[in-house]
Amino acid sequence: MRAEVIEGATLVVDAARLATMVGVELDALAESCRRVLAAGELRGSVLSGAERETQLLRALRASEDPALSCSGPHRAGDWERGWSENLRELHGDDGSLVTLMPKYNRHQVLRLQGDYLRVSDPAFEYAVYTALRHHCFQRWFRGVDGVAEFGCGTGTSLVLLAELLPQLELWGLDWAESSQRILEQIGARTGRTIHGRRFDMFAPDADFLLPPGTAVLTSAAMEQLGAAHGPFVDYLLAQQPAICVHIEPIVELYRPDSLFDDVAIRYHRRRNYLSGFLPRLQRLAAAGRIELLTVQRTGFGSFHHEGYSLVVWRPRGAGSRR
């Protein structure tokens, strides 16, 4: 899915480009999404020739690094330590909550619609991700009663939801206890209650019942499940959420006949990231158990892979528990 740009040119992520990335008409983008894009210097240089080949080679070698960590239940301690670092910094920040921003969204060579893009602002990726969330949240969560984010981490998406849709009841679920402590701090500073609870997506707690009319959000969280997403999907099917929105890396959307995509596939599989999730949903849709509303490869990602594909679905009969 190569962008229609001149190699070596400056590329800007503006409202028109984001609309293309998410597969909607320009006038379907929320005004707040447009403001986020307009507020940043979201431009970069498209890499070509030898420089592009250098980055492809770097990506290929990274995917073969034997020291590269793999996702799985054994990584719970790593995430506990990571979010604990954000929690420590949160205690000393100026009240802006900027320390909630994860530390891995700071690549300066990014993937965008079939090209590598060199950017000067290390916050570029996070800004585009924020604009993407503005679009998703206002498109899919209007009309629901609440949102439960599974794998909520530092709670940035919940903070954004509280600002955009203040009427919603919000739940933040994560397997790291430091995540729940961060949510407590957010509540103390903003006066907005976000219910925090420990939840392990590898072994879902069936006793945690989603309130009727609640939507589900995951963002760069199911990627950690690899092929072991079955219990979590079964849990969601049993809970009958109003809608499920996933912003995740979807390996099945890459093109294996493209070198640019192949290096991302290799990295994705080497990290044991999410696989088989989309085919499972497609089978459920074919069987009439769910409605698959959106499957969209945005073409946007960090240097190694694209973590911002969109999958939106709902169980057949969702809302019947209201």
How do you describe this structure in short?
With 322 residues, the chain is of the alpha/beta class. It contains ten helices and twelve strands.
What's the β-strand tally? 12
Give the amount of beta strand, in percent: 15-25%
Question: Biggest sheet, in brief?
Answer: 7 strands, mixed
Q: Strands of the largest sheet, in order across it?
A: 7-6-5-8-9-12-10
What is the chains' assembly state? single chain
- Element-level helix/strand string: EHHEHHEEHEHEHEEHEHHEEE
- What distance lies between the first and last C-alpha atoms, to the nearest angstrom? 41 Å
Residues in helices, as a percent range: 25-40%
Name of the CATH architecture of the domain at 89-105 and 129-315: 3-Layer(aba) Sandwich
Average pLDDT: 90
Write down the overall geometry. globular
**Could you give me the name of the CATH homologous superfamily of the domain at 89-105 and 129-315?**
Vaccinia Virus protein VP39
The gyration radius over C-alpha positions equals 19 Å
Low-pLDDT windows of residues: 3-7
The CATH class of the domain at 89-105 and 129-315, by name, is Alpha Beta
CATH topology term of the domain at 89-105 and 129-315: Rossmann fold
Structural class: alpha/beta
Topology, element by element:
Blueprint: E1 10-12, H1 15-22, H2 31-39, E2 43-46, H3 49-63, H4 76-92, E3 109-112, E4 115-118, H5 124-140, E5 146-150, H6 156-164, E6 169-174, H7 177-190, E7 195-198, E8 214-219, H8 230-239, E9 244-248, H9 259-270, H10 277-286, E10 290-296, E11 300-301, E12 309-315
Parallel strand pairs: 5-6, 5-8, 6-7, 8-9
Antiparallel strand pairs: 1-2, 2-4, 3-4, 3-11, 9-12, 10-12
